[in-house]
């Protein structure tokens, strides 16, 4: 039996090796085809330019003395000469353009901190899509491995030689404090990867000011208002330059056809122009949050919170509070280290109140309607594309007020259970209590005292361990680099994606009834700086990223 198992394992290994070799050969052939096509296009352009220039050469200047004071006159530019110069400029521009497609691909070992050699092989490749930033993509050699990508941005991505034990055939890629070490087979292979990575670094796109974004948004709305048919309508939106790169897509359901125009809308400005700036009391917005969460889906760092309709608000708040606590426990000093379970749940409740489907959906619809069907336009309407919306996406991360050096990141904290559901029910009851002492505002403004946290030796409401020592020798889990002005905070980024279609006022379920497809991505970031003694968490301005596509018909994929 042992020999049979050994033979079977060897056969599986050979089959896996053959599969990887075929994949590597196909990638190398694709790179060669792209290089050959680029060289052929440039060679044809140069040869055409040289031939046209030779056939249209200007006659020599007549002999005789030349007056130095007379102005220099060039011979008349013939069409062939203009075409030759244009061809040369085109060839130079093609040579200066960054390469697209798969630039380099191979199999390298990824050095893991908690594992001993031999390390696992990963398929690693450098690729660039047209109009996008080059990325370094890596995935385990297994068929079901998840791919990870790192944007190769100059100034933020650090590429250097690394040392693994006594071996120097390795290089590291660091971006925003996260460092990955790759082990090569030889120093020559390492140098080839380093040269290719350095040549693939792209400059970070310059941010567009709010004034420019607002001006382009208003110009597109004015052009669309004057359109009377579909072709004119799409051309009016396409004529305005697109604003920056599109938003990153986290799920397959949020996929969208290629946008012909993209815009950034300031929610506050749109509300002021439409006279929609009145805000309801907190108690009413809190009750609306509870109603929305019972029929909505929320994904906290990719994990969809699933519960019954009755316990949905408490379950979602507990999951978000657990992630806030998990990030804050990475520090041992500062206000964030003093954050308790009740404080985290208070912050989570306030964040959920400000990003319900009623709030995000209303803001997105107002911005889309202002762009695609402004006041005075009565021949098109904005309708939801589908009845089932994507889950509300929430991302939690710790941001430190220091300059991150290319050092290994701290080990990830162990998985901790969320605060007790009963405790979340009690907190929500206190936030909605009619009495003045237990109102939500008083609870948020109440100063935090040392007795609010569980004392040493008493069981906490979560499994998150605390470090109550006040020794000056305490250090954060991460290696401390140079200090910069600012303090640590936990950023909670909330995103809600909604799909619409612009159709005629009398649709008949025909493709001609749809003039454009629109995707609205509502984004807002909240910052937790410490205990809720100072009130609600700091909230940034909400923006809506609008992408317009000229597809006549499209259905989003269903969730798996």
TrEMBL record:
<feature type="compositionally biased region" description="Polar residues">
    <location>
        <begin position="432"/>
        <end position="443"/>
    </location>
</feature>
<feature type="compositionally biased region" description="Low complexity">
    <location>
        <begin position="447"/>
        <end position="456"/>
    </location>
</feature>
<feature type="coiled-coil region">
    <location>
        <begin position="3"/>
        <end position="37"/>
    </location>
</feature>
<keyword id="KW-0175">Coiled coil</keyword>
<feature type="region of interest" description="Disordered">
    <location>
        <begin position="432"/>
        <end position="487"/>
    </location>
</feature>
<protein>
    <recommendedName>
        <fullName>PH domain-containing protein</fullName>
    </recommendedName>
</protein>
